[in-house]
Amino acid sequence: MKFNFPKPKLLFFFLILSLLCLQSLSSSTIKKHASKTRKTIINDQFKEAPQFYNSPNCASITEPEEDTEHDTGTYICSEEAVHVAMTLDTTYIRGSMAAILSVLQHSSCPQNIIFHFVCSSNTSLLHSIISKSFPYLKFQVYNFDDSIVSGLISTSIRSALDCPLNYARSYLANLIPLCVRKVVYLDSDLILVDDITKLASTPLAEKNAVLAAPEYCNANFTFYFTPTFWSNPSLSLTFANRKACYFNTGVMVIDLEKWRDGDYTTKIEEWMELQKRMRIYELGSLPPFLLVFAGEIVPVDHRWNQHGLGGDNFRGLCRDLHPGPVSLLHWSGKGKPWVRLDANRPCPLDALWAPYDLLQTPFSLDS
Q1: Helix, strand, or coil here: 44?
Q2: Which N-terminal residues, if any, form the signal peptide (predicted)?
Q3: Whole-angstrom distance, CA of residue 74 vs CA of residue 142
Q4: Element holding 26 (H helix, E strand)
C-alpha cells in the first residue's frame, strides 16, 4: 500500500499556522484568567484588622442618619474629624494597608478619623479591599484622572517617580469636599507609632501658611535643582528673601481653604510646564512643591518624618534612623520593606514595619 505524505514545506506551513492559532487562543485565555485570578488574589490576601474604639475623652462627631456601610457623608463636615488623605494603587496597596492600621492603632480617637483615598485605576477593587480589611473605617474614594497631569510630567531619575498618581497630592483641594478645611497627607510607605491627632493639630494660622511639614535645613538645597536653574537669575531669584529648606512631601498638613484661595495647584502646574521646556530639576513631584512652598511652611518636629529608610534612589541601601525621637517611620527611597522582607533580604528597620503587615500568608494561624 502506498501512502501520500504532505510535502515538507506544506507540512511546515500548516504546523506554524496551527501553533500561531493555538498561541493566540492560549494568550487570550491566559490573560483573561490571569486578570480574574489577580483580582481574586489581591482581594482575598489581606486579613481583617481589629476594630479600634475612641477613648472616653474623645469628642463625638456627627453620626450618619442611616446605618449605611461606609456612609461618611454626614461625618465629613464635622469639626471634630481628623482627615487623612492617601493615594491607593495595586502596586503599593500592601504598604497602604499597613499605614492605615498604624494610624488607627496609635490614635486616641480612631473613630474620629476619616480617610480620603485617591486612585486612578482599579477603583472598585481597591474600595473592596479597604472595606474587607477595615469594615468599620470611615472613608471615601476619589477617582483621579491621570490625563490631568500626564502631559505635564517629565522623566526623573527613577521611573516609579513618574507615575501620575504621585502628583495627585497637588490636586487634593479639587477632589476633597469643600467643607474639609485641613487634611494630613501621608505616603503609602510609612507607619505611625504616635497619635496622628498631634500632627493634625499643627497650627497653620500663626504664619498664615498653607502647609506644615518637617524641614531639613542641613540638606544641600541646591541639589534639588539643575545648574540650568541656578544659572538663570530670573529663576534662582525665586528663593530670594526665603529661607528655603528641603522638606519631604510624603508627610504634610495642608490647609485646603488657603490652598484653594491661593490656587496653588495652578502655581505647581506652571513650574511643571516650565520643566517641560527647560530641565530645571530631576526628582519628580517634589521640586514643584519646593519651588512654591520652601521657606514658607510651618516646620514640624523631625520625629514626624523619619524618612529615607528605603535608601537612596539608585541602590536602595539600608539606612539608620535620624537622631531623636520617632513618631513616624517613612521608607522613602527605592527600597520598600515588604519587598525586602519577601526577598528575605530585609534591612534592620524593616522589622518595625512587619507587625503592621496585613498580608494573609498561607501559613497564617489567624482566624
Answers
A1: helix
A2: 1-27
A3: 17
A4: helix 8-44
Q: Count the neighbouring beta carbons within 10 Å of the beta carbon of residue 62.
A: 14
Q: Are 158 and 313 in contact (CB under 8 A)?
A: yes
**Predicted pLDDT at 12:** 43
Residue 84 C-alpha from the chain's centroid: 12
Buried b (16+ CB within 10 A) or exposed e, 220-255: ebeebbbeebeeeeebeebbeeeebbbbbbbbbbbb
| Partners of 298 in the β-ladder | 212
The candidate with the shortest Cα–Cα distance to 117, out of 147, 148, 93, is: 93
Q: Say what the pLDDT of residue 75 is.
A: 80
pTM, rounded to two decimals: 0.84
Q: Domain extents for the chain?
A: 74-353
Q: What is the mean pLDDT of each run of 10 residues along the chain (367 residues)?
A: 47 43 39 40 78 94 53 76 97 97 98 97 95 96 94 74 89 96 97 98 92 95 95 95 94 98 97 94 91 96 95 78 94 93 94 96 55
What lies within 8 Å, CB to CB, of 293 at 6+ separation is: 210, 211, 247
Q: Is domain 74-353 given the CATH code 3.90.550.10 in the classification?
A: yes
The C-alpha angle 174, 63, 60, rounded to 5 degrees, equals 95
Query: Would you put residue 308 in left (φ > 0), alpha (ψ -120 to 50) or beta?
Result: left
d(CA 21, CA 227): 55
Amino acid residing at 257? E
